[in-house]
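Section 3.1 - Work completed
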Amino acid sequence: MNHAEFEWGLIFWNLLLVALLVFLNGVFVAAEFAIVKVRQSRLAQLSGEGSVLARQALRINRKLDAYLSATQLGITMTSLGLGWVGEPAVDDLIVTPLLERFGLAGDNKLSHSVSFIIAFAIVTFLHIVFGELAPKSLAIRRTEGVALWLSWPLHAFYRLFLPVIWLLNHTANLVLRAIGIEPAGETETAHTEEEIRILMSQSAKSGVIDKEEMKLFDNVFEFSDRVAREVMLPRTDMDVLYLNRPFEENLKVVYESRHTRYPVALADKDHIVGFVHISDLLTADPREKHDLRRWLRPILTVPESMEISKVLRLMQKRKSQLAIVIDEYGGTAGMLTAQMILEEIVGEIHDEFDDDLPSVVIKGDVISIDGRMLIEEVNDLLGIEIEDEEVDSIGGWLFRLLEGNVEVGRSVTAHGHVFEIAQAERLRIQRIHVTKAKSAPASDATDAGASGREPVRGRNGEEG
């Protein structure tokens, strides 16, 4: 074998080594992304079905710190090897012959510098494209398959270099502790609420989950933030039976309202003493005199600031379907039922006796909303940002803007919408019609941001 054949043979083996190092770098990169992104629940399912690969991948996923260190070690080793072998091999095979072809080769420093820069650029390109980007994209798009097929090779590499990985991990932890930072572990990889919302939103956009599932998911998160005051039926809407009234009169309330359970008060709603079940009342002879005390059952009372999740747990513990909400002064603020709380998650539940309109009714350009809807729910519905720390409901907000002048037909223009009272009872706004505000001339427009007030229009459209 002459010298030229030996050199070409050496170049060939170096190039083969370069290709192998790029491939191994890609394997470690793909493994790193796959073991992080793969769903542990899916691996557990496959493992339960008898998949050996899934069983090994599950073990790796449960020891992420250690195996991520293994992938990092592999990436570092292959990258260093690529830098050591790749540049000379590419220089000898591609760059030097190319420079000789154009008469630029020589022993001067300039030709060596140009040769090094070109060879380095080519190796870097191969490293990034085939050793980083392509494997990463493959692992993201085929997470499950990559995690399964690379589980055993990664485990073998981990076992082979376990002493080195252990030393590197402990050294890194010592450095972190020396500067006052506690190393993170697998148990600290939990997602925040906002991160989970983003993940679920992306899943909804890609069609993995439908809109109804996404709505339920949002409701679950918002459920934990709700308090009794925001969900309760206000005291003005409560149907109450009174101990100081004739049985026939109380029975008339039952026939008209058709509820299952009724709070019972002494003389007013601030003195609730218990509740009665409709079955007890309907089985009694209406021609006889009856005292509601004979059917009276203890009723749960909760403060208006209590979270509804805690109220629900309390109801379950006490086996109660009804709770009276008490304000800060000890008076009755409203009433909560188990159904009201559950509706915060699953949406409104109507039965054959419900005559009320749904909270939201859309007819053409008009959105009819219940005055008791929470401001934040209206914000989500309309895509606006009403803020008011004094009231919780949209009816209360409109009442404040109208300064208590409640009259059907009166309206307020705010946040690009017209809010018009559609139904009211005395001073309580029951239903509001919302429409998009038409652009007004600049001279007639009121800048709410500057003045703090919006145009208020009366029944006939005049400003008030």
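Second construct:
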Amino acid sequence: MSEIKGLPLLKQLIDAYGVSGNEEEIRGLILKNIKKYVDEVTVDNMGNIIAHNKGTQPALMLAAHMDEIGLMIKKIDNSGRIFCSSIGGFDPTILIGQRVHVGPKGSHLHGVITTDKISTDLELIEKPTLEDIYVDTGLNKAELSKRGIGIGCYVSLETKSGNLGSEDYIQGKALDDRIGCYILVELVKQIQHLKNELYFVFTVQEEVGLYGAKTTAYEISPDWAIAVDVTNADDRTDESSKNLGMGPTITIKDADMIANKCVNEHIVKLSNKLKIPVQLEVSDIGTTDAFNISLSKGGVPSTVVGVAIRNIHTPVGIAHKDDILNCVKLLKELIKNPPKICHI
């Protein structure tokens, strides 16, 4: 069985099911690993986990999303071809030939994503859309119905996680954002008995609209916040700025938000103190839970600290172990030594 050397919990988190809106399995795994380390833990009406260590102000909210990209069944024809709606953003082409799990966890039904647009010489005649691909389970519509498979059932990606040729490199599905979840769980275990008030939040439905972050930030009303998430590495280009193995990333700007400058400057100072390399990100693509958190009520000084990965939003991502461990170290120091309240 494949493993991730030195990080067994990360493997469990990566392998757990948890497509947006169906986070039950990953939520249970996280609860099991954090509940004895915090003063109180609750699951709200949306399914977010809010782990709270009581203290005095200022209150810090750290958020990582539990959900992953996937599919939901929207139509099954008589022959059993399963057509789906996307959950999260991805290029349908990368799904062709991918093994998937269909239905609830206990269904034990597997399938393969395919398309009729593959010609006899195995070349794509034209780039397929989501309407052109379907799941083949080997069962017809009537047989699928007997197995409880119908409209609204989830389809989850199946990939065996583990190390690559070097144990420093990790591959698997749902690195976005099970890496962030792992970092938060480690911080929960390592950070105790501090004076400051801490909220470790594991959010739902980030991939479809950052919804969990919106409701939890409103409920908590933090003084400042950090979203812990992954970003797309560009280390295969001549002018790369986000490289695997070169340290945690700090977002200055993404497609929807400009991060709080005061918080970012403080994090960079701490990274210099710890001699942890960091990578600054300015991007025109994508956003994170920090966007909705920053807009809660009167506004929350927020930023994103995370890990660069290759193949983001595909069935198999690649990350570097050192970036994950350094992210834990950096955020641990940040929690112990928070900035003065940063409003602008």
